Every structure is written in C-alpha cells, then in structure tokens.
Amino acid sequence: MLEVGTIVRMNQVVSQKKCATCGTGFPVLDKDRALLDKMKVYGKYDIPDPVDCWDCRQQRRQSHRNERNLYPSKCGKCEKDILSIFSPEKEVTVYCPTCWWGDEFDGLSYGRDYDFSRPFFEQWKELYHEVPRISLIVLGEMVNSDYAHDAYRLKNCYLTFDGEQAWDCLYGETFYKLKDCMDFLVTYESELCYETVNCSNCYNLKFSKFCVNCSESSFLHDCVGCKNCFACCNLHRAQWCIFNKQYSEQEYKKKIAEYGLKGYEALEAFKKEFAEFVAEQPKRAYRGVKNEDVVGDHIDNCKDVYYSFDTVGCRDCRYCTNMAIGANDCMDVDIWGDKLNLAYNCECVGAGAANLMCDYYVARGAVNVFYSAFCWDSVADIFGCVGLRHKKRCILNKQYSEEEYHVMVERIVAHMRETGEWGQFFPVETSWFGYNETVGHEFYPLSEEQVRERGWQWRDVPAREFAKQGYKIPDRIEDVSDLIVGEVLACEECGRNFKITPQELKRLRAFEVPISHKCFNCRHFARRRAKNPRRLWKRESAKSGKPLFTSYAPDRPEKVWTVDEYIKEFF
Predict the structure, then answer these.
(1) What are the sequence ranges of the domains in the chain?
(2) Residue 285 neighbours by CB under 8 Å, 6+ apart
(3) Which of 161, 363, 447, 551 lies 20 to 30 angstroms, CA to CA, from 417?
(4) What pTM was computed for the model?
(5) CA distance linking residue 195 with residue 205, whole number of Å
(6) What is the pLDDT of residues 488-505, one digit of tens each?
C-alpha cells in the first residue's frame, strides 16, 4: 500500500465539492478527472464531476438492490408459484427466470417515444415499472438451488447470494468456487469452511476471519499459510500453535481436547475470550496481497486501484467494491467485474461488458450501454432501456436506425445536462424496493422516519407475534436427533422463528459444531459487523507514529501499523 505522502502526491485535488445530498465536503482528484475523461460517452460526451460524496454515491446505487430478502410470488406468464425478490404487495409483473429468458418475452414491445418536455428519470421510471421483472437473477445451470439470488452455477445450495460456482453450500454471501461451506461472507476458492469472513484458498477452517491458504484450523484471525492452529492471530506459515504459542503435535492435540468446545455455551464463551485476544494484537493498515499502488482494504492482485474494497484482479480502478473477478478502468462500480472495461457509476455489471455508464444489471458482452437496467447478451448502443437482449440502437426500448439513434442521443444528453441528470445514477425514488429491504440499509442504516423524510420508500412489515420456542436445543451436536428439523426455533437475538433444514443438520454434524441459537439474518449481520466500514481515515502508526490511511477510524482502540511494519514483524 502506498504511504500517505505518496498518495497525496499522486492524487492532486482538482476541485473541492460539497455533497448535494449530505453537505459533506469531498475532493475531486486529478486521476478521477483523468479516468472520467477517458470514459467519454461515444468519445464526445463529457462525464461531469460527481455531485455527491463517496458514501452518498454508493448509498444511492445500493438502494436499488435487494440482495437477501425472498418472497413467495407467482410468475406473471406461466403462473407457477415462485420465489421473488419483490414482495407480494408491490404492483409489478414478475416472470420466473425460464419465462423471462424465453424467446416469447420481447422488451421492445414496451418501447415509447422520448418526451423532451419531461425529465429523463421520470420517463425512465415509467418504463422501468412497466417492463416485466425477472424474479431472481440466476445464470447458468442451477441444480437444487431455488433459494439463491445473484448467483451463477450452483448445486445443492441454500440461501446463498452474490456468488458463483458453489456446491453444497448454505447461508452465505459474496463467494466464488466453494464446496461444502456454511455461514460465510466474502469467501473464495475454499472447501469445508464454517463461519468465515474474507477467507480464500482455505480448507476445513472454522470461526476464522481474514485468512489465506489456511487449513485444519479454528479461530484464526489474519493468518496466512497456517495448518493445525487454534486461536491464533497474525501468524504466517505456522503449525501446531495455540494463542500464538508453539506446541509439539502431541501437546497441541492434548491441549485442544482440553478446551472442550463442542457445547454451545462453552463455544460462545470462548468466542468472547478469543475476541479479547485478537483485540490486543497489532492490525495492519489494510489487508491485501500482490498489489502495486493501491489504497483501500481487502484488495488482492491489483494495480493502481484507489479507495476500493473487496476487490480482486483490477487495474486502474477507483471507488469500486466487490469487484471480485477483475476489471479495468472503472470508477464507482459495485459488484461483479469479470473482464469489465470502462464502466462508471454502475451497480452489478460485468462479464465482458464495456463502455457502461449509470447501469444496473447490464452484462454478458454488453457494449455502449447507458442508463439501462437488466440488459444482457451482446446488447449494443442502448440508452435508457429495460429488459433487452441481443438488441442494438434502442432508446426507452424503441428501435432506431443508426443515424437516428446517434442524433437522439445527442439531444437527450443535452436535455439531461439542462435538467441536471447527466452523470447521476438513478434516483433512490425510482427503486422498486423499500430502503429497509436493500443493501443500502446494511451499509448505511436509517430509521423509518429518516427514510420517509427523504421521500424514499420504506417497506411496512406486517406486525406478527413470533412463536415462543418450546424445544430445548441440546448443547452438543451429537445429542441432537433428526427430529429437530420439525421444530420451530426462536432466535435468541431478534426473536424471529427459524427452522433447521436436514442439509444444515448434516453439515453441522460433519463440522462437529453445535446448533446456533440465532437465525440466518442475525448471523449474517454479525459477520458484516466483523468487517471494517468502506471508508478510510488518516491516523498514525501505533508502532512508529508514521501517518497511514486505514479503515480503522481514529477513535477505535486497535493498534494499527503500516503494512511495511506489519510485514517485517510477522512475515
């Protein structure tokens, strides 16, 4: 990671802005401006500086995405019972994936003329709310994985979101190439892992965070290449260690048996003990490997990446998040990547797409697509469209000749500049979701009153009384009978009812861990809280006093070191 002085020198402030949404001051840097100039629309339409700060830009995009709330619904075409990300009270036509991807659905049938007397977003919202919506974003072959969204090629997976290529996995989000894993967040290329956060290339790893190439271990934090270790932090290529102390193989196995953590109460008590141990250990300013000139957190195999998070294999990108499969020349993009090039201010775009601006779910070879949603499969020269595939030169889902298309785009861009819409992502008011259903609420939680004051939607969840749990969960997994799958349990944190599935019970028995007393949602939010916010602060190294940028806020108690200091000490 770059030192603070280098970061400042390499990112000169071009202009100082005041956020149009929250009023916070923020800079536009020279490299921001250079990348925006490189991404000119059709090479001639300038992209203006952002009008909102980093947080408000990200919040605006995330307010359009419901990632984990699934509802019973019915396909508007084949009338089959389905699951959908759209709640039953919403007046939207929803198609099952089979019908939506089928040849009979043609988005051009919803085309309309552009009205230059009205704002663009007003017209786009009408189109967006009329075109049938796909119930769940699932791509490729999905086998026995009905309870999944934002997913590609899953088999025997349950309640898994934002990921691809997984087999026999349950309760996770943001993943890639997993097998037999459960309760995970941001986990890649791993097998037999339980309760992991930001781990990759791991095997048989439990209750661990921020680990790489670790195996046969439990309760690891910021470890690399460790095997047969327990309750360790900041270790590199270690074996037979407990609380960072070296043991012989026989001593290690004897000591582990003495801990006796197969019971739920003992396990919960030990989690607190381990958290206290981790809190005392030094933290590096940012996490990442094989990088060159990067600023952010959880960045791997990247070059010239600035203020980005959970990003892998990217080049010349700025303000990006969850770009886990690589991208080039992107700014303000959340989710996906995979050979993505030249994208600005987008949500969920990738898979060979290029030259995108202000898009939502645009992918698979899409080129020159602007202000559109759910447009796929080699669409090209698309502006303000919804639900198109294999189409070219369309505006508001209406087909134009090549000459007509470019004349219209020029007029629309000029019109959007006059209305102040050009360069801005879709307003929160155009979202199909209540703010409390969206990813935005996870990262930027607001009260119902705050949401309604902004004129945004809030989903009113019908009041219900949850059933009290009459069944006493055995303390140890070996004492749990198959009959538990018929019991209604109540989350000890939020009170919501939940059930244990046969697949889950089988997996917990294999892991030899007790039944959790918390529901899937509360476990997910606990994992989310384990990650630092997507924000950087300037503070001083606890070791040397050197200035550094880090995702640990200045008022937090952690001892943060520069990356060089950390590597020298622990590697």
Answers:
(1) 4-62
(2) 1, 541, 548, 549, 550, 552, 560, 561, 562, 563, 566
(3) 363
(4) 0.94
(5) 8
(6) 999 999 999 999 999 999
